[in-house]
Amino acid sequence: MVTAAVFFSHFAFRGLNKPLCRMLEFLKQPVVVTAEINVNLVALTVMGLVNRLWALSYPRAVVFDEVYYGQFVSLYMKRIFFVDDSGPPFGHMLLAFGGYLGGFDGNFLWNRIGAEYSMNVPVWSLRLLPALSGALCVPLAYQILVELHFSHCAAFGAALLILFENSLITQSRLMLLESVLIFFVLLAILSYLKFYNLQKCSPFTAGWWFWLLLTGVACSCAVGVKYMGLFTYMLLLAIAGVHSWHLIGDQTLSNVSVLCHLLARGLALVVIPVAMYLSFFYVHLTLLYRSGPHDQIMTSAFQASLEGGLARITQGQPLEVAYGSQITLRNVLGKPMPCWLHSHKNTYPIRYENGRGSSHQQQVTCYPFKDVNNWWIVKDPGMQQLVVSNPPRPVRHGHIVQLVHGITTRYLNTHDVAAPLSPHSQEISCYVDYNISMPAQSLWRVEIVNRESDTDVWKTILSEVRFVHVNTSAVLKLSGASLPEWGYRQLEIIGEKLSKGYHQSMLWNVEEHRYGKSQEQKEREVELHSPTQADISKNLSFMARFTELQWKILTLKNEDTEHKYSSSPLDWITMDTNIAYWFHPISGAQIHLIGNVLTWASANVATLVYVCLFLWYLLRRRRKICDIPEDAWGLWVSAGGLCVGGWAVNYLPFFMMEKTLFLYHYLPALTFQILLIPVVLQHLTDHLCRYPGHPVGCPAVLITGEEGSEMVGFLVPAPALTLSTLHYVPSVIMLPCLPEGHGENYSVNASTEPGKLHVKLQHCFLGSPFLTGSRVQSSKLLH
Amino acid sequence: MPCEGTRLRFPPCPTARTPFPLVLCAVGPGRRRLPRVGARMTLAARCRQAESGPRCGGLRQRRPRRPAGEPSRPSPPPRAWAPLEARVGVGVWAPLASVTLLSFASRFYRLSEPPHVCWDETHFGKMGSYYINRTFFFDVHPPLGKMLIGLAGYLSGYDGTFPFQKPGDRYEHHNYIGMRGFCAFLGSCLVPFCYLTVLELSKSLSAALLAASILIFDTGCITLSQYILLDPILMFFLMGAVLSMVKYNSCADRPFSTPWWFWLSLTGVNLAGAIGVKFVGLFVVLLVGLNTVYDLWELLGDLSLSLVALGKHLLARVFCLILLPLALYTAQFAVHFAVLNKSGPGDGFFSSAFQSRLIGNNLHNVSVPEHLAYGSVITMKNLRMAGGYLHSHWHLYPEGVGARQQQVTAYLHKDLNNLWVIKKHDSNTDHLDPSHSVEFVRHGDVIRLEHKETSRNLHSHQQEAPMTRKHFQVTGYGINGTGDANDFWRIEVVGRKAGKRIKVLRSQIRLTHLATGCILGSSGKTLPKWGWEQVEVTCTPYVKETPNALWNVEDHINPKLPNISLDVLKPSFPEILLESHMVMIRGNSGLKPKENEVTSKPWHWPINYQGLRFSGVNETDYRVYLLGNPVVWWLNLVTIGLYLLMVTCAIVAMKRGVQLTAELKELFEVLLHSGGKIMLGWLLHYLPFFMMGRVLYFHHYFPAMLFSSMLTGITWDTLLKFFAGCLSCFVGRRVYTYGMLALMLLIVYSFYLFHPLSYGMVGPMASDPNSPMTGLRWLESWEF
Questions:
Q1: How would DSSP label each residue in A191-210?
Q2: Which of A219, A516, A736, B318 is deepest in the core (most CB within 10 A)?
Q3: Could you give the C-alpha distances from B9 to A4, B1, B658, B722, B724, in angstroms and in order?
């Protein structure tokens, strides 16, 4: 704890930087090392740690989103590959690191909120990292305001507000990622400010480099924890850009030194974060080498690079597809589900329900399960044989082939008949000759899309191939619709006539592959049923795997967009919403994510005051009327740009997001907003309340305009806010409090009337020993 | 004279003749040489001179303010080069005339080909017909464009009888030339607008000519202007707004003069036109808005202006750029609703109240009892867009889908199975019995809804719904109205106090299930075959204020109550306006691309990656393919990079305090301010598409392409002038002249190569070696 505090405190070593001739004087005088320790910081850190770490392992039950993150921790412990669309892997890795420290073996079934943890789950160490980062946010907030050149008193106020904000406390004490994100965001801001302040006096010193690099590192960590961190990173880049622009305008610097400055910033703020981000994925992919439940989402090539799963099947199969090869073809898109080109004995119905006719030939579908009917044989149209010659003749880009269905030996065919569900496209069938002047059109041209040259060989797993029909130029495509009962609800395959451009639904890759050896159909069937074997392993490069995983994370969509506690961004400002995190069915103890209403309201007021005053000053300055001194204006702009800007970039983007949103998404924005409160208060006391005759007048009857008024300005609201937090303690530190008769019929899962939970919660508050004399406010809040 | 040292500046040209050889060509043989101008005149200065025609722009030198009312005239020639000014005046009009002529010629050439419906003509032509027939329809765009098409058709003698069913239908005897001609006319106006805008911004004739020739010879612009589409109309208003904005900016030195007022209000009118055609017009509103904010900011910093004068400036802009467009926009809708007064294919998208306005709709002039009473027979319509009526039928939910009880769905058509009877939850009395007095249903009452045909009660329970698994299933339950406690619903009106009566059509009703607390709603998902592909109805446990969970009573039959005419309930104009906007916005966002569908991506557009087939697919068809002239488009693309590079160099040089000559400063001024405006326009018309979820098409890029072409004109002109200034005078002038000539020849030649794309091709495809287009398929993705 103390080390953490010392980390942020001012050190000043004196006595060793004297000229050489005087250095020998140490013989006469003792060496003196003086360390300045900011007691404020130490105290804040200690309070933060106590506040966040106290009774950390209570409750020993799964609380809200722990059920979500927990499964990833388990998968990390077991080294099983997964894909999570909620963000990059660094956050999950940190949580897993906690599990690793606690010796977690990953054996816990994360299936239900409220489930009791078994003995093997190290709850304390799993929750430790988020709690620590939550605690360190307190001194960080203090230091940020100090670096912004605000008084220690204001800084102390900011830290206290963070310390006692119960939504932040709740979020920090559980195995969740928001507090980690906030920590890195604040760290990035602080180190940038430190760097910027050093810039003026001592550029290119060790301290300067340290803080500059730390900015980049903290930014990449923030982005690595959650994509929301990206917005703060952008804000910092913008601020750095503005500062660099001023630097360019500084004509006392030579061109070379300006260039050096710019390069240093580019290195630390762009190159290093990108490298760090890649390294997160590198570690992620190195750690998770076993195949697992999310394999199906990835391409065959990726799956083959994991241990077990597909790799076990494809290990050692021949690389080059040759005439006579037996293959299964997987659609590259994999939506709505991964599937393989399939055919079976059944034919298309003569007439569909809507009266349209079909060719009545054998059905071709896409089937989402492994099956012997997924096997096809690549045949040279000019030859009859269905086995691989010796030496094998590989199929190359642009070759024309026929695809023979292994079990039924019918040819893949398409013709000018409308497809069952997509009438604008052609039907794909396996050709049955009914002697009705409908000839076989079974020639397909193989086009390798990701080829390097036009003579590339068609490779197993690696090549993405388009099949273009020779007669009609239709392209074999997965339409995404699923067939009705007669097609066993398998997916429809069509021949797309207007093959506009590139789309993954038209691409196929060979997944399983072997060289066919049997001449006779009977033998071939036996061969098809036997597992493949050969001896080439395929490993993707890291960059290829990274690109694929990153793309999947960004494009994966979850279907369910509704949740009982989801809310819209507009509800957050006014805190019209809360989240019941956990509820003990017997004792009635509960945890709620709910903000401190006084803090939220004053933060909103501060933002409003800031924006209004800023506009007012801006307009008047344009008319050359300066209400405040130039340096005060600079301070006002920089502090506001950081706090209001931070709030805006962390809040406004949510209005454009279509995913399910919760109150906790607001917490990073809230942190910035809280930092603004003391900034505005100090400004008001310093500049507006000091001059009674000022046109703006004093908006708040805070104090008289004496020296040291800012002290009073904080000493008044801070205890009030602190007290108000005490008010909410029950929601954070689950006191069992349930009036008689309410215990039985209460259950979080029973989704009942909206007001019900609130009513209960109110009982809980009013019954708790902390609250006397604040009933009115409490009930107001809860409705 | 060589450049001196590191200080960049233009050497004075002692033997300078005109740098505008193209002007000379255009003006004719009599003016091969312009008289010598002053030795110290720079290129830019000469441009300014050339500009001082009767228009108010182009005059940087301050003029005394005229008394209001007197029209602006050129100030009396101050110097000896007065004759030049007069003659150059002709020299400005002549290129404009020739540019306009070329533009019209290229757009009207082979206008009637092909004589069948092409691409989206099937929509917009049809909508034009709807206006002529006065039939109500629904479209995701505002009405102005289609009204103008309808008007053009009406004036040219088209009778609105052609069905416009699908692309490829022959027009036969129907008169379609009027509508195409109207669009082509507006499309042709783009070129002179663009010419004037660039001229005003850069003060350089050759920049204007370059930009204009890009547009004249771009195959994409020609194709898009030749058919019955909204795009030429949209772009006409858009360019009109930009032109008038630029003009009124040029009048800034004479605020509140007649031309100032004229251009300012014309900007407003054009803005109204642009949004009235498509919502994409909002981007140009944004452009003008940002420009105005910048403008006001500059004025605010001008301490010579009093606060009163500032207020006047502000008010003038508020009036012309906000109030005037709003009024015009509203007026368009007023005309739209006044013209379309007959029931048509668009009815179902709108609420019941809206439908009651339309002649021929079954809600028109119907009279029903106003307040809901027990025993009434009603239909309930869901309030989500295209929401259905609450419906039930004898069929049961199949095995495995919740409880095996009677299906309840939402059905989009009127049907007897949509009828329900409101009953008290606890008694089964027949309220229609004359011995009972009428009892009204009030907000907060607990009721039971009995299906009229099957006598089952509307019922819900804690079984999962068929499609939306997190919701509860809704069924019909009970025999002859006798069910259980799960049949009770609380009826509430949004925004009302308890105890109030419930109105037909107007009240938004929410039905809360008493036992589980869930709310009756329609999820919008289509049920499979067993549910007759009707829409799913569920009971949602998530209490949200969405129109999915709100209903209104549409039909209402109760013989004991007096009928009142629905005319009383007709929505007011603001309500109609609001509703139609809601429907349009939802319709727009509903145009989502389907999974597994190949769609055009915004990054395809500037590189001219892929065109659109307007007509014809096969070798024998008459094929028209919407694709930009690749040379032009790639030139534009390169220019954007070039522009950014030049701007970066310029501002860094200025920031580093490099000494600049006056000439260079002027060049930078044009580059930063004029180019900046155009660049902003390009960004505003392009970047937002990256964030749009709806289906996008190639032609969405064309408004941005206009800005890109103007930027090309300005950038190359500046670049060549810069080089010309660096080199010795003679060489420099040549570089400038030949550079411009080369660019224009390149454009004309490429147009010669690619013109069949717009004017139609018959015969083998380009992949065939016999085709005249062989070798021109430079990208695999082009399909001609």
A1: HHHHHHHHHHH-TTSHHHHH
A2: A219
A3: 60, 11, 11, 9, 11
Determine the Cα–Cα distance for residues B507 and B176; give it in Å rounded to an integer.
Answer: 46
Of B303, B652, B693, the CB nearest to A248: B652
Query: Which two three-digit tokens encode residue B258?
Result: 């007649």
Entry field: residues in chain A:
783
Q: Which residue of B has its CA nearest to A750?
A: B516
Neighbours of A329 (CB within 10 A): 23
Closest residue to A479, CB basis, from B300, B516, B596: B596
| Mean pLDDT of the A117-134 span | 92
- Burial of B524: CB neighbours in 10 Å, binned 0-12, 13-18, 19+: middle
Tell me the residue type at A548. E
Tell me which chain A residues have a C-beta less than 8 angstroms from the C-beta of B652: 248
Is residue B560 classed as helix, strand or coil in its secondary structure? coil
Report the alpha-carbon distance of residue B779 to residue B784 in Å, rounded: 11
More confident residue, A756 or B229: B229
Q: What is the pLDDT of residue A562?
A: 64
Q: What phi, psi does B155 have (nearest 5°)?
A: -70, -30
Residue A474's H or E segment, with its range, is none
Overall average pLDDT of the B43-62 stretch = 40
Give the one of A248, A564, A756 whose C-beta lies nearest to B656's C-beta: A248
What are the pLDDT digits (tens) for A310-327?
Answer: 777 776 778 888 898 889
A335–B595 C-beta distance less than 8 A: yes
What tokens appear for B22 in the block?
Answer: 């193209």
CA distance B577 to A407: 63
Across B78-87, B394-403, B657-666, B748-757, the highest mean pLDDT is recorded for B748-757
- Closest residue on chain A to B648 (Cα): A245
Specify whether the CB–CB gap between B351 and B383 falls below 8 A.
yes
Backbone angles phi, psi at A185, to 5 degrees: -65, -45
Query: Can you tell me the ipTM of this complex?
Result: 0.75
CB count in 10 Å sphere of residue A568: 12
Q: Label residues A527-558 b or e (16+ Cβ within 10 Å = b).
A: bbeeebeeeeebebeeeebbebbeebbeeeee
Residue type, A482: S
- Under an 8 Å CB criterion, which residues of A touch B? 245, 248-249, 251, 255, 258, 333, 335-336, 477-480, 484, 498-503, 505, 560, 562-564, 566, 619, 622-624, 656, 658, 751-754, 756
Please name the residue of chain B whose CA is at the shortest distance from the CA of residue A492: B596
Determine which helix (DSSP H) or strand (DSSP E) holds B158, and give its type and residue range.
Answer: none
Q: How far is CA A213 from the centre of its chain?
A: 23
Q: For residues B604 and A542, what is the distance between their CA atoms, to the nearest angstrom?
A: 29
Q: Before B35, cis peptide (omega within 30)?
A: no
pLDDT tens-place string over residues A2-20: 444 444 444 434 444 445 5
What's the pTM value of the predicted model, to 2 decimals? 0.77
Question: Which residue type occupies B559?
Answer: P
Q: Decide: B382 and B344 in contact? Cβ < 8 Å.
A: no
Across-strand partners of B410?
B390, B535
Is A503 within 8 Å of B470 when comparing Cβ atoms? no
Angle between helices B231-250 and B281-301 (to 10 degrees): 10
Could you report the per-residue pLDDT of B719-758, keeping only the tens digit for each?
998 888 887 777 878 888 899 999 999 999 999 988 888 8
Do A133 and A180 meet the contact criterion of CB atoms below 8 Å apart? yes
Q: For testing the chain A interface, which of B596, B603, B687 should be mutated: the one with the most A CBs within 10 Å?
A: B596
How many CB atoms lie under 10 A from the CB of residue B512?
Answer: 20
Both structure tokens of A277: 């981000």
Q: Which long-range contacts (CB under 8 A, 24 or more apart) does B686-691 make?
A: B686/B602, B686/B605, B686/B606, B688/B283, B689/B602, B690/B602, B691/A656
Q: Phi/psi at B316 (nearest 5 deg)? A: -60, -40
